[in-house]
Structure formats: structure tokens, C-alpha cells
Amino acid sequence: LLERLANCDGRVFVDVSGMSRLLIVQVLVALGNRKARFNRCFVAYTVAKIYPPSQNEVEAKIAQRNIDPTYSVLFLSSGVFDVTIVPELSSTSIPLGQTRLIAFPSLEAYQLTALRAELQPSRFTFIAGIPPSLANAWRPEAIQRINRVDTVKHDALTTSTLDYRETLDCLLQLYGKHSERERLLISPTGSKMQTVAVGLFRTFMDDVQIVYPTPKGFRSPYTEGIGQLYSLPLDGFSAALT
Prior knowledge:
- The chain is of the alpha/beta class.
- Helices cover about 35% and strands about 20% of the residues.
- The protein has helices at about 1-5, 20-30, 55-65, 110-120, 140-145, 165-180, 190-205, 235-240; strands at about 10-15, 40-45, 80-85, 100-105, 125-130, 155-160, 180-185, 210, 210-215, 230-235.
- The strands form three sheets. Strands 6-5-4-7-8 form a five-stranded parallel sheet, sandwiched between helices. Strands 1-2-10 form a three-stranded mixed sheet, with helices on one face. Strands 3-9 form a two-stranded antiparallel ribbon.
- α2 (about 20-30) links the parallel β1 (about 10-15) and β2.
- It is globular and about 55 Å long.
């Protein structure tokens, strides 16, 4: 894939709708590192009509865990296979000093648990996703409870799950604030468009380490229905890379 992207001189449409979050970051970084950069490149994204699980399902499982602390709260995937670090997304900086994990807590609490156990970062920044639909407005608070984020000392931020610009701006501010004294680890476990922001950010900042809690398997169906289609031209980022 990396070789094909490097040699492609036509238009490139990256449909992130069905991609894993790690693959989204890999593809965008590969495109940004080509000779042609992001010229004639587009991100395509289709919003689903229904995003499982339902609020009732989430509340029921949280209640079950409150009764039985050993109960595994699983919604869309079935645990973490491994925390993946691929060579092309590894940091070019020398691993000195403190480490900061920048993560996007999700409904899958074991992702954050795996990252904490495997990486043992010194500091945390959690970026909560704010859904554009009022029907999903309950999710951010539920995600906080599922991940028990109140038990972890962290910096808390929020960005839109759809408008990638908010997340990209947030990451740039975090980089400016912490990169000189800390080694930054970013785990793209948020929404697809938050992950697009991570990919664009990592294209410019190669001293940032991408880490990903690879799921063992996924729920089927993962989402239901087809909603709005979005197209994001990436040409404007090429000028900043020259």
C-alpha cells in the first residue's frame, strides 16, 4: 500500500468509513510523505444513521459492573490483542524525560486500560468527543463513567467528533505546550474524523509516537444505515509541507 501510494500520480480518495483508526493514520502519513504530498487527495467519510450501542444498553452494562466489578463491559469490540507500534509511525525523538499519553476515551474501556498498563505514561491528556447529533449527546458522560476517568489525574479537553479542525488545533496546542519537556504518545481511539486530525498532525510532527490498542474482533453490525457523505480536500496541507 505504501509503495502504491508513493507512485500514484492521479487523484486519491481515502474512504475512512470502513478503515481501522491505525490504517487511517498510516495512509495519511504515507500520502503526506510522498513527493506529490497531499496534492489531488481527498478524505471521504460517510456518517452512519445508527451508532450502537443504545443508551439503555450502556446503562444496563454499567449497572451490572457496579454489582460485579469483574464484569467485562464490551460493546463494539472484544478486548485488546496488543498495543501496536508500527515503524513508520514511531517517534524520531530520543525517549528522554516524562511521557504524556494523549488519548480519546471511548465506550471500550479496556483500550485505555491496555494503554496505561503497557505504556505506563507519566501524564495523561484525555480528549472527549462531542457528537454533532443531539441523539448521541449522552455519550460523553457515559464514556467518562465507563473509563472511570475521575480516578486518573489528567488534563481534560473536548473536540467535535466530526469537525477535524477542532482536534487538529487541539493537538497543535498540546504539542506547543508539552513537546519540549515531554515525549508525546498519541492513541487514535476517537471518532474517524478525530483520527483524520491525528493523521494530519503526525504528518507534520514526526517526533510524536503513535500507539494503538488493536482490538481482537468487532461487533457485527458495527454501525447501521448510511447518512451524510462528507468530502475533505487535502491539497491545502501540501503547501505547509514544502
